[in-house]
Amino acid sequence: MLNPFDEIFKRFDGLESKIAESGNVPIITPPEIIDREELCKRLAITEPTAIRWEKKGKIPCSLY
């Protein structure tokens, strides 16, 4: 009896090969850490808005 996962793994292997051959391997960059002042500049928002968004959890925030 054919295991359905064997077909899935076979297809994944084929995809991996095609990606490697194409040279278009995505580059994952780590998140950039910026201060609140830079955040406000980039998003064109005021500092109170940034603080409010931080408190609501809309944007990540670190106190360190």
What would you note in describing this structure?
It is a single chain. By secondary structure, the protein is mainly alpha-helical. It has one domain. It has 3 helices and no strands.
Short structural description:
It contains 3 helices and no strands. The chain has 64 residues and is an all-alpha fold.
Hey, roughly how much beta strand do the residues contain? under 5%
Helix and strand run? HHH
The number of domains is 1
Termini gap: 57 Å
Portion of residues within helices? 55-70%
- Kindly report the average pLDDT value: 86
Number of helices: 3
Q: How would a textbook summarize the main sheet? A: none
The geometry reads as elongated
Layout of helices and strands:
Elements: H1 4-22, H2 36-43, H3 47-56
List descriptors.
64 residues, mainly alpha, elongated
